Amino acid sequence: MEMAIDTPSPSPSPAPSAAVGRQxxxxxxxxxxxxxxxxxxxxxxxxxxxxxxxxxxxxAAVLSCASATPVESSxxxxxxxxSLVSRLHGLKRKMEEGARAEELQVQRCRARLDRLxxxxxxxxxxxxxxxxxxxxxxxMLRMSYxxxxxxxxxxxxxxxLVDTDVFLNAKRVIDSLQNKEIAPALxxxxxxxxxxxxxxxxxxxxxxxxxxxxxxxxKSFIQxxxxxxxxxxxxxxxxxxxxxxxxxxxxxxxxxxxxxxxxLFEQNxxxxxxxxxxxxxxxxxxMTLEPLLNIYLQAGLTALKTPFCSEGNCPKEDPLSLDxxxxxxxxxxxxxxxxxxxxxxxxKELMDTENPPRVLPNGYVYSEKALQEMSKKNGGEIKxxxxxxxxxxxxxxxxxxx
Length: 402
Known about the structure:
By secondary structure, the protein is mostly helical. It has 4 domains: 30-121; 169-284, no CATH class; 292-329, no CATH class; 343-398, Zinc/RING finger domain, C3HC4 (zinc finger) (Herpes Virus-1), CATH 3.30.40. It is built from 18 helices and 7 strands. The strands form 3 sheets. The protein has a 3-stranded antiparallel sheet with strand order 4-3-7. Strands 1-2 form a two-stranded antiparallel sheet. Strand 3 (357-359) and strand 4 form a beta hairpin. Helix 2 runs antiparallel to helix 3. It is elongated. It starts with 15 loop residues before the first helix and ends with a strand.
């Protein structure tokens, strides 16, 4: 005896192929844009370390002062302890500010993880639009268009998905280097000393060299020698050749014509320091060295680049017909296409065995489908869109692709 059992109908689910496609998209996004999660995590770690160092330093100082409380009079002891309490209140206020900064970084990490979680279930067009805006903000921040980047992030509601605050902190160092000030950059190196040392960074050494060169340029030779002994000598074990070269400027001076030493006094050395700082900054936060916009454009241009494009005969529809794209694609390899493809000039469709090419008497080639449609509209006549020559459809010879 058969029994009928009522079972709830399953809720409709997205097509398996679409779900797999979205999961693949999320995986590729993380692979190409790992900084989406990495940057706020590194910022959180940096904030935690700073707060920890601050607390250790202040507590050690308070304990040291407490052990040295004066015993001559009760009034002096009270004043001393009052100052210690005031200092502890200041530490509490700073720790609260640090806790708020940590919470902000945690919030951003959570928002980005939630963003990745919606990749396999969200709307495709919305996902792509949001990613494009993040890529544009990243490019603007790297190119120092801070106000425009902040405005785009605000109007798009993606403040938690972009790294505006991190870049604004770097801006302070970049601006100081452009103004020929070394101190903020050296302070940044001191804050991240252990991590820069682990990556074998030369940034601090280059900053010290520039400061030494500026002393030589100002003809403060005694100060330059003392500076070299204090700050440059410890680098001798790993950078002896560079150290010997820079200390030789004490002899050659800034007016030298010797190219080896003259280059050290040039103004573009400050630009090199800015570039070096940006590279170290990107590495420290796990960012790509190239803007994400460049990476995506180069990926697409690599698929389009062929030897034919470099000859200057690109059709107007090809992005490589533009000088800007061609310059961006110049260092890229050619597309790995073993066979050429014929595309109809009229319909822009691929010409193959189903839609074979036909040759007009004047030598121009178009697809059979395009010529048939033109023949029907013009009473059996075909007019070449390039030269204006008129012929019959029967006069067009079929070409064979080998």
